[in-house]
Amino acid sequence: MTRPSHLDKAEIVAVLRSRGLHARADWVDRDLPDLVDTDRNAALLEMLDIDPAAITSHPDPPPVNSDARSSRARDRDATGRPRNARPRDELGRPLPRDAAGVAQLPADVVLPPYESLAEAQRLLDAGHSFRAHEVLEGTWKAAPEAERELWRGLAQLAVGLTHVRRGNATGAVQLLRRAAERVEGYVHEPPYGIAVAGLVVWTGALIVRIERHGLAGLAAEDLTVRLRG
To answer: Which among 4, 61, 184, 190 counts the fewest CB atoms within 10 Å?
Structure first.
């Protein structure tokens, strides 16, 4: 399938809503342009599990037969909200539907700031950077306007570490650089005891190491970062 240079934002939003990922769909609808550059936003699309070629080749959803409709009806959480039943590995990569994936956070999970930082730190320490990003992303979406870029940067930091663990050096550097730029704006008055200055320095050093030497030789301790001072 041919990879398009741009995607209609509405198609991305529709795919995310079909998976029950409404918070992510709302963010895409609010923050992305009407035509999304697939090369410039390759790392973001990968994080969202959006395949540009698949969307272009299948712009309309296939007909839903009774069996599929019944299966979809079972694919709901305890509140009745649809969710994406496809299992994922610890780095957020989709697995076959019959595979045993890691436990996933509830869709649209939102934790208060201190709880979010504690849970994200626990997950980062365990090497579960993708799940840490989900925790931080939920807090970002609910944060007051003055804090949104900080939480967005923290979520992108976790995504950058996910790309490192996936072996994607280019995506890692892109996300880590964006994360550092966003977090640095809070260096003078960091809320919640977040170690903003330390995060910026640590992220910058990791970027330089990847750009000079690639991902080879990076150990688990090299990817362990402290969110609070």
So the answer is: 61
